[in-house]
Amino acid sequence: MVQFILASASPRRRDLLDQIGIIPDKVFAADIDETPLKAEIPDRYAARLALEKAQAVSKAFPEAVVLGSDTVVACGRRILPKAETEEQARDCLTLMSGRSHRVYTGICLAGPGDQQRQRLVETRVKVKHLSTEEIVMYLASGEWQGKAGGYAIQGLFASCVISIIGSYSSVVGLPLYETGNLLKGVGLKPKT
Fold first, then answer.
1. Which of 25, 31, 33, 70 is catalytic?
2. Rounded to the nearest 10 degrees, what angle do helices 176-185 and 11-19 cross at?
3. Which residues pair with 103 in a beta bridge?
4. How do residues 116-145 score in pLDDT, each as one tens digit?
5. What pLDDT does 192 receive?
6. Cα torsion angle, 25, 27, 32, 33, sign
7. pLDDT at residue 188 in the model
8. Global pTM?
9. Mind listing the pLDDT tens digit for each residue in 95-107?
10. Which candidate in 83, 109, 134, 191 could, as Cys together with 89 as Cys, close a disulfide (CB 3.0–4.6 Å)?
C-alpha cells in the first residue's frame, strides 16, 4: 500500500479528510515561499501554491502520494491575505461587506514518482452588509487569525454568509468531492 502524506499543517484539512474517512500516514508541512508573483491572478496563485507544496514534499518522499492544497480568497483580482493582524482582518471584512467574493482552492496529488494530478475549485460567497459593531465583535473572537480573507466560514462568521455557490468544504480548506475522486483514482480509499 502506497504511503499517503498531507503536505499541510492545517488542522482543518486533516479534519476534512477525516470526514471522508481518509487518514494521512504522515503530515509534513511544505516550506515554500507563498508570495504572489507580480500580476498573478487568484486562481493561478492557488493552483501554483498547491502544486509547489505537493512537489516540495514529494521530493522528500518520492514513493508516496502527496496532497498539496492552498485556499485563496479574492475580491475581483485582488488576493486577500491570510490575516495575521487585526488590521488585516478588518480590511478584509470591510472589503467583503455587502458583496460577493470568490474562494479558490487548488489541490495537487504528486507521486509516486513524477505523477501529478491537479484540480482547482472556485466557490462564490456572498456576505451580508457588516456593521462596524459586527466587525468589532468578530475581530474580538480571534477566529480570523491565520485565515485566508480574515474569516472562518465554519465558525461564527457563518451567520454573515447569505449564500454560497460551489463547494462549502473548499471554503473551509479542502474540496472533498474533488479530493476524494483524486485519491480514489490513485487507489486510496477510506479507512474503515
1. 70
2. 70
3. 73, 123
4. 999 999 999 999 999 999 999 999 999 999
5. 62
6. positive
7. 87
8. 0.94
9. 999 999 999 999 9
10. 83
Question: Strand, helix or coil at 60?
Answer: helix
CA-CA-CA-CA torsion sign (108, 109, 115, 119): negative
Q: How far apart are CA 9 and CA 29, in angstroms?
A: 5
Going from the C-alpha of 110 to that of each of 7, 65, 138, 160, the distances in angstroms are 10, 6, 38, 36
Grid cell, residue 123, equals 466557490
**Amino acid letter at 74?**
A
Q: How far apart are CA 114 and CA 171, in angstroms?
A: 29
Interior/surface letters 69-102, b for 16+ CB within 10 angstroms, e for the rest:
bbbbbbbeeebbbbbeeeebbbebbebbbeeebb
- Which structural domains are found in the chain, ordered by start? 4-185 (3.90.950.10)
Indicate if 70 belongs to the active site.
yes
112 upstream amide cis, omega within 30 of 0: yes
Over the chain, what is the mean pLDDT?
A: 95
